[in-house]
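Could you help me review a protein record that somebody else here produced? My question to you is simply how this chain folds and whether the tokens agree. Thanks in advance; the entry in question is below:
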Amino acid sequence: MTEVVSNGPEGPGEEHDATRRDFIHIAAGAAAVGAGAMVAWPLINQMNPAADTLALASIEFDLTKVLEGQQVVVLWQGKPVFVRYRTPEEIARARADDNASLPDPQTDAERVKPGNEQYLILVGACTHLGCVPTFGTGDYGGWFCPCHGSHYDVSGRIRKGPAPTNLVVPDYEFLSDTRVRIG
């Protein structure tokens, strides 16, 4: 009599087929993950900053281009930056307003670098909605945002209107008496 050996519920060759099937499933899963990574990589990589933007992380500016009482607008990180050479009268007026009732209290000395108080450097975007204010047309001798009516003084501090904070003073340093690095 011939004896039949059973390997469980499967037939004699099905155990070998199961391991081959498992390998095919694992290989197909690995290929799908690889394909997903290949599709996702360009989408994720495009979110990195462009090389030309990184080049503008900081800029240098020659202060001899600004005469006393004038303002120059330079572009930094896609935003206007006001570089103002203030007159002694403007500096005196800004210091006199240090004790005024301010929505965002800050002294003039906190907004300029010691030894270079004549130069005021501000991001030229209204802190309300980002409009560009104009100089000399406001109620306080400083900047005025015509879009929504924010008034800033000669130190760039908010005095009246919907803007919640002062004009932003960016990080900057004086490299020499005539050169400044913004950013």
Q: What stands out?
A: The mean pLDDT is 85. DSSP finds three helices and ten strands in the chain.
